[in-house]
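Deliverable D5.2: sample structural annotation.
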Amino acid sequence: MAEIRCVRNVVSFFCHSRFARDSKKARVPSVQFELGTPSAHDRHREKGRHSSENMATTSPSAMDHVSKKPKLADGEDAMDVDDKENRKIAKVAFDHETHMRIYYDSLFPAESMMKWLAYGNDLKHPQADAGFMQRREFCFTLPGDVFVRYQSFKDDKELRKELKSKLPSKIDIGPVFNVDPSKRLAYSGGAGSDRVFAPTEREFVMDIDMTDYDDVRTCCSAADICHKCWPLMDVAVKVIDKGLREDFGFNHLLWVYSGRRGIHCWVCDKRARQLSNEARAAVAEYFSVYKGTDASGLVKRVNVSNPLHPSLERALEELKKYWRETYLPEQQLLEDDKYAEPVLAMIPVADVREEVKAAWKRAPKDDSVQKWDELVKRVDKARKAVKGGPDKWALDKCVNEIIFAHVYPRLDVEVSKHMNHLLKAPFCVHPKTGRVCVPMDPKDDDFDPNKVPTVIQLIDEMNAAKAAGKEVSYKETAMNDAVETFNRTFWNGLKKECKEEMDQLHGKVREAVAAAKPLDF
């Protein structure tokens, strides 16, 4: 309850509503990968991540252990290239059974992932919970869009064995339950029953998807990404990472590239894992600034105050630099009426809006930075001329609102709200691109999603190492860099904290036993 009160106190300054987005059905995993233009179906967002399977209810009858969804139309089994710059590449032969078996056998870092998810409970420690991992849910997506849910594994060996047996095209991680998920049917008691199947903890997760920025990127749309729009993700990582650490005091954040067009964040501090659904929603809403458009569909709406909340004032420093140096020159936002008109529409005073429009006509058509400078100059002049009233208040925050509406992080808040939401696991392979979901360094400004290794690349690297007489393992491939990033930016610090917490708990137990008095945790 202390964490909930803390979150609510912070959010009382800055709490927003969110329009829930409709979840889209997951697509059929690829059987053959092909580099080429995305299909029509692929233009739709891959959201929801089993939203119908995200266990909004803990009743065992809510979802069968294995479910199957209809297959998509023919032609949906091609591997898509995410950037338009690399379209002309020959078809790459890929056999799901052969290549994924090699990947899960020799390349997938099961040990690293299971050590993380055990949070020290895999250690031979007096305070370790030996059954902890067997209460964690894993979901496999098999070829044919078959979802196998409520699985759990005691260690990395058991997980790897099942991966090699089932060869899932995707792995999702769920919460830790109060009992082994496979025994859930025995805990189907109703209200008031002491035999209820329910989640007890789960990492606080966040999801950022490039498709949510389609209205503010001129270079790409839908599943496409390129070097011009990916910096939107870089800025989102920096803003949210700093906010989670400085405003909420979280320390252990795992950032992961989703394998295609987005990013996931796993907040793994103990108190984050134990947040209630209400507290999770409050934290997510804290970062929800962009509120879509008004009824006209033209004017973008953002929830910012004047003066700015301290967290937004800090974020604005990052956004302003990116806005002028990268976003406007790369996206050329003000050179196309489709994107320029919504910017003009955010100027709240009609006379000022007309002045800016006239100035833009005189400015070079291909210079968005100069046009932006004209807007700022005229808004600032009008703001100083107005002595008070609603126009003064609106003009004071106009420039900031435009920046926030375009480049402030856009979260899929629904993913964060519930403890029992499934999310794609790090290190699994995206079924449409073949790229590995690799951990990211939030301080790295040079992350390039188009250079993330594919499963075929990793196998080729491993075969080359074998031919050279080297060890046959992921350490001779680009996967080694991914695991090192995982350890350096995330796991090393968390591992140390988990051990210290267990040592402290054990010390309390020994003191209580020695004093023969009740334990006080």
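Annotation notes: The chain is about 40% helix and 10% strand. The two ends are 15 Å apart (CA to CA).
The annotation will be released with the project's public dataset once the embargo ends.
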